[in-house]
Amino acid sequence: MITPSVSDPSPRRRSEKSRSATLSAALELCAENGYGKVTIEAIAARAGVSKKTIYRWWSTKGAILLDAVTELVASGSPLPDTGDIEADLRTHIGSLVRLFTSPVIGPAYTGILAELLHDERLARAVNDELVIPRVALVYQRMRGAQEQGQLPPDADLPLAVEMMYGPLYYRHALGRSYPDEQRIETLVAHVMRALRTPAPS
After folding, report:
1. CB-based burial label for 58 (10 Å; 0-12, 13-18, 19+)
2. Is residue 179 assigned to a domain?
3. Which of 31, 107, 108, 157 could bridge 65 with an S-S bond, Cβ 3.0-4.6 Å?
4. Contact at 8 Å (CB) between 96 and 77?
5. Does residue 154 fall inside a structural domain?
6. The pLDDT value given to residue 128
7. pTM (2 decimals)?
8. CA 150, CA 192: separation in Å to the nearest integer?
9. Does position 5 have pLDDT exceeding 80, yes or no?
10. How do residues 158-177 score in pLDDT, each as one tens digit?
11. CATH number, domain at 155?
12. Can you tell me the distance from the alpha carbon of 103 to that of 87, in angstroms, rounded to the nearest whole number?
C-alpha cells in the first residue's frame, strides 16, 4: 500500500483542488466576458481540468456558477448576534449588497437570475441551495430576537424576511442600483417598524 504524501495527494485532495479551480475559473470568465459567453469548454481550459471532470459534478455552467456564488454568499454575508437585531440586519443586508455589486459575483448572479426563468432545474437549485438557507438564517436570527423581547410575539417573521430581501432582488432583476448604506438603514428601520406595529384586527 502506498501512503499518500504531500507530493502524492489523495484523490479527495485532488478532487477538491479541481473543484475549487473550476469554480474560480467560471467566476473569472463570467466577470471578463459576461454570463452568455461562458462555456464549459472555456471553464475547463481555464481551470486546467477535463470536461469529463466538470460533468462529473455539474450538468451546466449555471450549476457551476450557482455553486460558486452560493459559497461566496454563505461565507461573505454574516448575520451576527450582537443583541441588537436592527444593527445585525443592517450588517447582513450591507454585506449582501457589497457581494452582489462586486465585479466577481455580480455578473454571475445576474446571469443565474436570467437563466432560471427558462431552466426549471436551475430554478429549483437556486431556491434549495441559495434562497432557502439564507431565508432560514435570517428567520432564525429574528426568531431569537423575538424570544428576547426585541420583537412582538405576534410579529409575522416570514413576511418580514421577504420585506427585507425583496428590494434587493427587485433592484437586481431590473438592473437598478442597489441601496447605499443610508437606504439600507432606512429599509431595515421600516421593516422593524412594521413588525412592531400591531396588525389590524
Report:
1. buried
2. yes
3. 108
4. yes
5. yes
6. 96
7. 0.85
8. 10
9. no
10. 999 999 999 988 888 788 88
11. 1.10.357.10
12. 26
